[in-house]
Amino acid sequence: MKVYVAGPITGWPDKNRPAFEKAEVELGSLGHEVYTPFMHEGGGDLPYEEYLKLGLILMLSCDGVAMLPEWHTSTGATIEHDLAEKVRMHVLDLSEWLDPMIGPRA
What we know:
Structural class: alpha/beta
Order of helices and strands: EHEHEHEH
Helix content: 40-55%
Radius of gyration: 13 Å
Largest sheet: 4 strands, parallel
Distance between the termini: 4 Å
């Protein structure tokens, strides 16, 4: 299954990259094809709105979304969450994706 990882970035140390990388490894070990917002950094010189647009395009190409802890504190992750639910994607907290009793399988 293609899974997009969504979570807070702005204002976090190292843009919360360690949490995204850990999620990528964990979901990948379950056989998922994992995508993160960092796949289209563009050298770090794009405006926030452009990164949000690119992230939404990438997310919509996936089957599901794994929400990192504290996602609800992020405007961008909240937009990603709400849009993913509106278009009926599999949207679960990362811990639920990793739980064999809850999360979908690749």
